[in-house]
Specification:
99 residues; mainly alpha; 5 helices; globular
Length: 99
């Protein structure tokens, strides 16, 4: 366990009840923890997608959503929103407003 794991757990705890993170996503949530530390409340949906893409490349490098955020369908873009909001909520709890 590293200093990122408690932050990842905090982000998970801020997700809405209907969010369903992918299985075996500890490494993904560590990337989200980096976003929390780096951007705080300033994190954007696009940032979440970039972190997810970096993680997904190690899982399934042929995944259809491995494209820049602006090329995603609106429905696929919307899937990033709960994670970005959870990171922002975690940042507010920690008092990390970002740069």
């Amino acid at each position: 366990m590293t200093y990122l794991d408690p932050l990842a757990d905090l982000i998970r705890s801020c997700l809405p009840p209907d969010a369903t993170p992918p299985a075996d996503s500890d490494a993904l949530f560590r990337l989200y923890a980096v976003l929390l530390r780096a951007k705080g409340e300033q994190v954007r949906d696009e940032d979440v997608h970039d972190a997810w893409s970096a993680w997904m490349q190690t899982i399934d490098s042929g995944h259809d959503a491995l494209v820049p955020f602006e090329e995603l369908t609106p429905e696929t873009r919307a899937a990033d929103a709960p994670y970005a909001e959870a990171i922002r909520a975690a940042a507010r709890r920690m008092g990390r407003t970002g740069e």
